[in-house]
Design a protein that fits this description.
It is a peripheral membrane protein. Residues 29-122 form the PH domain. By secondary structure, the chain is α+β, with helices and mostly antiparallel strands. The strands form four sheets. It has a 15-stranded mixed sheet that branches. Strands 4-3-2-1-7-6-5 form a seven-stranded antiparallel sheet.
């Protein structure tokens, strides 16, 4: 990593002024030193580092011996935010590229550091404010070179002296008013106590004299106040104008940076579409600390699972593989919408509705649209394809074990959209469909259909020109537990690759919505997933760790191991389901020491980890648009030629998106009643057609339109698969076979 001398950086304004003598050695109260654990990356976890807090700067070193020559990183507390996470953990960030995730050995030690950091930050902010004050303009015109700093400093000093003088005048006037007021009060009291006669004239004269002095000093006080106020107002206007100019410049700079970021993102996506070069590794830690070519990974903090250690450095050279592909022609892409109407601020007490529903199925609870998001469950299923590029890359892999890593990463990526999505998707009506035709833009087509209503089940089929097919059938089992809501997706997801005939299947983990009664709703994913390649016997075991307030692990953590049919480990995956995943090649494995629970942990020697997936940033204003991703914003956009059963044509969902929630609730009730009537009619027809009474009243003879149920020999699963005909019907514009559900 880069080496920096341990010097105390001066604020920029001070650096522009004349050289100053060296700063005296700070007193012990201004310096704080000690060991802390600093987060580096998902494989290494927290590492012990020596931290030094001095002169408003927090620096760290690997050892105390490095203090004299090698500083690993420094953060200026004047612009930093200090956040306490739990009893031992805290975060220091300057809002930019520098973020230190730190952990103390105890709560007492953490509080000592927090106290020292807050005091140092206050001093640093005060010093910076004083330095910034010396930077105010002395006139509206820009100063000439060589004179600006002196002119600004001279004017500020002069203003401060003048205002200090006025404050002294006010203090003097106040003292005189108190003195003469007291004397006047005494004279008035004496005047009341004397009789008419001898010394009446003398007392009257004293009262008049003292009243005159009181009036004079009061006028002086009023004049001094007026002068001070006028002076303060004049300079306040100038300083406010200068401050507003700085703010305007900052806003323009931010807008420029935002435009550059968008252009960079666009170019990056275009480049990614044209080439398929591997991306480099990125880590949560600082590059200065972790980028050394000769440094390898330490043990990962997960006592219940496994640990990784560095493999022999020779593997880093002999096993490096580069991938190249021919450039693709970039076709013009349809411009899709980037905004939907902001979510209205309608208040409705969730507990008033949910308190009578404890233990019930979520699908059977009559919920107003106030708790929905303007998307159907079919559209939420289609969101799994946001990171379709992982399957594109998997289709190009020569090794089934490496392909398994991309499939596993795709599995994890499907949860990234849920982290802030506390709104409930609309329950699809029976026979409702959703198509997602991105053949020209992304090379795939997708179709969903609601194939059952009780229990609610949706079938999904997507096929790509890049040589993969994704199919799934999901039935949601959900229970309201009072404090939280559990959603258990039942059913199977399968991915098939044309070139290798590899056939993968897996299931989904449990989703939990917390704080139903009180507090802010938040979502967690927990459980374990086995991704199985039925052709080769390869397997990836993924573990989604549930959030725990007392855990020292990073929240939303996911770990996984890819093994072959004999159980030999080949890859290790690690990351979080809401941010990114990394994978590393296992070169050797062995049984290690017993963990905290008495279990023997496996030790994996691995190569340096590579990033395999990273979540796309949310669009601007997402917090006002149900926290939709860029893909989600386009899903309900009206399109010509879709089936009459398509979610985009659903009226209650459209009214909700437009912010007309009262009308949406009325329309939702109408559609649900219409569906109940249709189901009763089907049941009556089933009774008439039944050969025996036992086959009658409770049997729903609904048949899906675009999917058919099969027994999959490879996975042993029974599921609905696409039987064809939809895209041909769309090309012909012939939808006569579609039921009228809206």
């Amino acid at each position: 990593g880069p080496v920096c001398k341990h010097v105390h950086l001066k604020p920029q304004a001070a650096a522009m002024s004349e050289p100053k003598p060296p700063t005296p050695t700070p007193t012990p109260g201004d310096t704080y030193k000690g060991w802390l654990f600093k987060w580096t990356n998902y494989i290494k976890g927290y590492q012990r580092r020596w931290f030094v807090l001095s002169n408003g700067l927090l620096s760290y070193y690997r050892t105390q011996a490095e203090m004299g020559h090698t500083c690993r990183g420094t953060i200026n507390l004047a612009t930093a935010n200090i956040t306490v996470e739990d009893s031992c953990n805290f975060v220091i960030s300057n809002g930019g590229a520098q973020t230190y995730h730190l952990k103390a050995s105890s709560e007492v030690e953490r509080q000592r550091w927090i106290t020292a950091l807050e005091l140092a930050k206050a001093k640093a902010v005060h010093m910076q404010a004083e330095s910034d004050d010396s930077g105010d303009d002395c006139s509206t015109a820009p100063p000439t070179s060589g004179q600006g700093g002196g002119c600004r400093n001279s004017e500020v000093q002069s203003t401060l002296r003048t205002m200090s003088s006025k404050v002294e005048d006010l203090t003097t006037c106040n003292d005189l008013i108190v003195k003469h007021g007291s004397a006047l009060q005494r004279s008035l009291s004496e005047l009341e106590g004397i009789r008419v006669g001898g010394d009446m004239g003398e007392k009257t004269r004293q009262v008049t004299e003292r009243a005159t002095l009181f009036r004079i000093t009061s006028n002086a006080m009023i004049n001094a106040c007026r002068d001070f106020l006028s002076l303060a107002q004049n300079h306040s206007k100038r300083w406010q104008k200068a401050l507003q100019t700085e703010r305007d410049q900052r806003i323009r700079l931010e807008e420029t940076l935002e435009q550059l970021a968008k252009q960079h993102n666009h170019l990056e996506r275009a480049f990614r579409g044209a080439t398929d070069l591997n991306r480099g590794v990125s880590a949560k830690g600082d590059a200065s600390d972790e980028d050394d070519d000769n440094e390898f990974f330490d043990a990962m903090e997960d006592p219940a699972e496994f640990i990784t250690v560095p493999a022999d450095p020779k593997y880093h050279r002999s096993l490096t593989v580069f991938y190249f592909s021919h450039p693709l022609e970039l076709e013009p892409v349809r411009q899709r919408r980037t905004r939907i109407p902001d979510k209205p601020n309608y208040y409705l007490n969730l507990w008033s509705i949910m308190k009578n529903c404890i233990g019930k199925e979520l699908s059977k609870i009559p919920m107003p649209v106030n708790f929905n998001e303007p998307l159907s469950m079919l559209q939420r299923l289609s969101e799994d394809l946001e990171y379709y590029e992982l399957l594109d890359k998997g289709a190009k892999c020569q090794s089934s074990l490496e392909q398994m890593c991309y499939v596993a990463a795709f599995t994890v990526s499907s949860y990234s959209t849920t982290v802030h999505r506390t709104g409930k998707p609309f329950n699809p009506l029976l026979g409702e469909t959703f198509e997602l035709d991105r053949l020209g833009e992304c090379g795939y087509r997708s179709l969903c259909e609601q194939v059952s209503h009780h229990p609610p089940a949706a079938a999904h089929h997507a096929i790509s020109e890049k040589g993969w097919t994704l199919r799934q059938e999901i039935t949601l089992a959900s229970k309201f537990r009072g404090k939280y809501l559990s959603i258990m997706p039942l059913g199977s997801i399968q991915c098939l690759f044309d070139k290798s005939n590899n056939h993968y299947s897996w299931k989904k983990v449990t989703t939990t919505v917390h704080n139903i009664i009180v507090g802010k709703l938040w979502i967690d994913q927990s459980g374990e997933i086995d991704v199985v390649n039925h052709r080769t016997g390869d397997r990836c075991h993924l573990k989604f760790a549930p959030y725990s307030y007392f855990s020292r692990d990073v929240p939303r953590k996911v770990t996984g191991v890819v093994t072959d049919k004999d159980g030999k480990a080949h890859y290790v995956l690690s990351g979080t389901w809401d941010e990114k995943m990394e994978f590393s090649r296992v070169m050797q494995s062995s049984k290690g020491e017993n963990g905290t629970e008495g279990k023997q942990r496996t030790v994996y020697q691995t190569l340096k980890a590579k990033e395999i997936w990273r979540k796309n940033p949310l669009p601007d204003g997402a917090e006002n648009m149900y926290f939709f991703s860029s893909l989600a914003l386009t899903l309900n956009e009206p399109e010509e030629g879709v089936a009459p059963t398509d979610c985009r044509r659903r009226p209650d969902q459209r009214l909700m998106e437009e912010g007309r929630w009262d009308e949406a609730n009325a329309e939702k009730q109408r559609l649900e009643e219409k569906q109940r009537t249709t189901r009763r009619e089907r049941e009556r027809e089933a009774v008439k057609a039944a050969s025996t009474p036992e086959e009658g009243p409770h049997q729903d003879n609904y048949q899906a339109l675009w999917f058919e149920k099969i027994d999959d020999a490879a996975s042993g699963e029974t599921l609905h698969v696409y039987k064809g005909g939809y895209w041909e019907a769309k090309d012909q514009g012939s939808w006569d076979m579609c039921p009228e559900i809206f």
